Amino acid sequence: MGKRFKSDILPKSKLLKKRKKSEARKRQMLGLGPKFIESVSCALCENDVIHVRKMVEGLSEYGLANLIEALSHNERTKLVQILGDKINPDVFPELNDVVQEQVIDSLQEKQIVKIANELDSDEVVEILEHLDEEEQESIIQKLDPELQYQVQSSLAYPEDSAGRIMSREFVSMPDWWTVKEAKAFLLKNEELPEEFYDIFLTDEKFKPTGQISLDKLLRAKPSESLFDIMDGEVVPIDVLTDQEEVAHMFREYGWHSAMVVDNKDHLIGVITISDVVDVIHEEASEDIMHLSGAEEGDVYKSVFSIFKSRVLWLVTNLVATILAASVVKGFQDVIAQISVLAVLMPIVASMGGTTGNQTLAVVVRALATRELTSSNTLRVIGKEFLVGLSNGLLFALLIGVITQLWFPDYKVVSLIIAVAMLVTLSIASLSGILVPLTLNRLKVDPAVSSGVFLIAITDCGGFFVFLGLAKMFLL
């Protein structure tokens, strides 16, 4: 029973790692100012190796990671080469994914292996998943046997799944142990994870039966059984669950940590709140960037890489703009006779686009956070339509009055643009919710594609309504 309390493979010792981190935090500088970064940059340009090493010597892993990110691509590569094997492995998990990939590419394989052997399995997976399969396999074969098994197991799971972000370093105990036995184990065992919040309890088949928070264990009487004081409402996360769903579960249940099980319901890993914070940041940044056609980490990429990632979005947007221009082309005769229409029609399309984007932002977020469900979809659609209608009525009145004051000789045009504004804003509000809902139903990420469809609908719709009414009543 002595080896029943841990995961299937015991984690490596963290004592030396803890001491190094503690010492680094004591020496940590208060912050990285522009002058400090500029000094490091100048020293790197002058190849002043001794000066560079002295300047970065007192930085913690967080400070050094921030410094590496602040430097140019060539400078960060040179800095890593200068530091060589003296660089703290804990720096790498703190780096932005793009920068991490660039730095890893500049290292030799033996350096990557040495760094990986000092990190937790989930951190190693995060580093290796950016490499191609051949490089991955070569590095994995040189890892410590225990870490090798853990990394191979995690990489076997789909990207962005619970299996990829979980850690295999956790504390589990038999549920029939007493509090006294549990405390004795925690005090004597030197290979506990560096950080943990809960102790997971299992039966004889290593299936989770409950969990106990550390504070509850400390307050319990020594003679009490863990089974009697555990939280028995077990909600394990399946290893194939998408990381967005994992983040949603943490938010709903208020977890600090959660157990991960395989297809046989065996406890195989743990996900902590720190892992979920990273997921939330990643997913939120990804959605925001996708709405504009950009990508996270563009600030660290080369000009050509950014150009490649954005050109497809711009081409798609060009197609949507050409469609809108085609609508205008169909009303050339009206515009030629009443030139004031050319002045006013961008107002209608712009207001429609802004209204649609407001709704789109709300809906994409609601879909991501699971706030928009099948039970409230119709109510939200109705609400957004009423909001669009209300905005339409207000701005129809405003633009009608402004147009009348601006062009007093075109009273009918004032009425036409007012009606067009009302219709366009109502359509835009509906489009802002129906487009992402439709894409989500078709299993297409609404954050990636909604913007282009919305532009096409609001521009084409706005121009068609305004110019169509003008042709109907003015010619």
Account of the 3D structure:
By secondary structure, the chain is mainly alpha-helical. 64% of the residues lie in helices and 6% in strands. The chain is built from 22 helices and six strands. The chain has helices at 15-27, 34-45, 49-56, 61-70, 73-83, 97-105, 109-116, 121-128, 133-140, 145-155, 162-165, 179-188, 214-219, 226-229, 243-253, 273-292, 303-329, 332-337, 340-368, 377-406, 411-441, 446-474; strands at 172-174, 198-202, 208-213, 237-238, 257-261, 267-272. The protein has a three-stranded mixed β-sheet. It has a three-stranded mixed β-sheet with strand order 4-5-6. Mean pLDDT is 84; it is low at 1-30.
Q: Main β-sheet: number of strands, strand sense, barrel status?
A: 3 strands, mixed
| Mean pLDDT rating | 84
The total count of helices amounts to 22
Distance between the termini: 92 Å
Q: If strands are numbered along the chain, what order do they take across the biggest sheet?
A: 1-2-3
Give structural attributes:
475 residues; 3-stranded mixed sheet; 22 helices; disordered N terminus
Q: Summed up, what is this model?
A:
The chain is mainly α and 475 residues long.
Write the layout of secondary structure elements.
Layout: H1 15-27, H2 34-45, H3 49-56, H4 61-70, H5 73-83, H6 97-105, H7 109-116, H8 121-128, H9 133-140, H10 145-155, H11 162-165, E1 172-174, H12 179-188, E2 198-202, E3 208-213, H13 214-219, H14 226-229, E4 237-238, H15 243-253, E5 257-261, E6 267-272, H16 273-292, H17 303-329, H18 332-337, H19 340-368, H20 377-406, H21 411-441, H22 446-474
Parallel strand pairs: 1-2, 4-5
Antiparallel strand pairs: 2-3, 5-6
